[in-house]
Amino acid sequence: MKKILILESGEVFKGESFGNHENSFGEVVFNTAMTGYQELISDPSYCDQLVCMTYPLIGNYGINRDDFESIQPSIKGLIVKEVCDFPSNFRSQMTLQEFFAKKNIAGISGIDTRRLTRVLRSSGVVKGRIADADSDISTVISDLKNQNFPTDEVAKVSTKTSYANPGRGFKVVLVDFGSKLGILRELAERDCDVTVVSHNVTSEEILLINPDGIMLSNGPGNPEDNPIAIKMIQQLLGKIPIFGICLGHQLIALACGAKTFKLKFGHRGGNHPVLDLAKNKVAITSQNHGYAVDQESLKQTDLEETHVALNDKTNEGLKHTVYPCFSVQYHPEASPGPEDANYLFDEFLLLMYQFKNVTV
Questions:
Q1: What pLDDT digit, counting tens, does each position of 68-119 carry?
Q2: Domain range spanning residue 266?
Q3: In the listed set 146, 163, 195, which residue is the last one of a domain according to the structure?
Q4: Most exposed: 73, 243, 307, 357, by fewest CB within 10 Å?
Q5: CA–CA separation, 285 vs 269, rounded Å?
Q6: Catalytic residue among 47, 52, 246, 256, which?
Q7: Tens-place pLDDT, residues 157-203
Q8: Is 219 annotated as a binding residue?
Q9: How far is the CA of 229 from the CAs of 154, 214, 236, 254, in angstroms?
Q10: Which residue among 123, 146, 169 closes a domain?
């Protein structure tokens, strides 16, 4: 079925539909990863987005049962140059097209993804729609310009009820803003006794659990759209060690008085170099974010910059100078991407151990 991708900036790309053939609206972004499309598709941080893959062939190793980062994908659509009809991998259980059809996800192939990526790098991320080939383009562009982005993405992807992932080690509360299963997996490998709670949990509810540490997960959207979470963090700083990842990192910054801003086209891929300022060591990281912490605003806070992106010098890590709290903008759990930075989970355990010994 013929489809077109229409951007609010006026560009039109012709292609063919796969998966769910319905029209789909979302923010158009690009990801530079060569592999890991299954983890990417199921990453809740892509809620309400149309993702362009810069690698030209997607779906060549199929879909398997093990590589999901959420149970129900929230991505609005996938934009590819070529979709593979005959995947080859011993773990493959279905094609990408079959999975998209089952999960009602829109896909469009045959797109000049190189040109689209250059447009997004030049103009910044824009609203777009996968539409019928005979759609009135000027009407769609007008609709896109007048359509607002949702502000409830975190509520869409966060768990509605608390649940446990038992262990015999440190008791950790994982606040789910759209958490990837990779975070839970890393905590489980360290035998943490994890309780996963909703995004709108209060500080009082967390204190009733009496955890040794709090993990603030990744998630979609503008961090400023989460005032309840920001207040919760402010009330728990100094009482319990806190580790934030991605959106959790941004929320810690906002809770401490810093500011965030929207990046022109974001960081999305599996090969982003990040410098650890204290160790003077570079890690290749997995990233997926459209917002960043304003470094200038850190001067008015008790936060210290710990990591910097080498590509554009934006902030990638923070540490509180008074309280046991640190965070990173990238994904130490990877999935997909390199696992250079998963030692940060060990540093979280060390922080909990030190805090417990000091307060006993």
A1: 999 999 999 999 999 999 999 999 999 999 999 999 999 999 999 999 999 9
A2: 153-359
A3: 146
A4: 357
A5: 8
A6: 246
A7: 999 999 999 999 999 999 999 999 999 999 999 999 999 999 999 99
A8: yes
A9: 11, 13, 11, 10
A10: 146
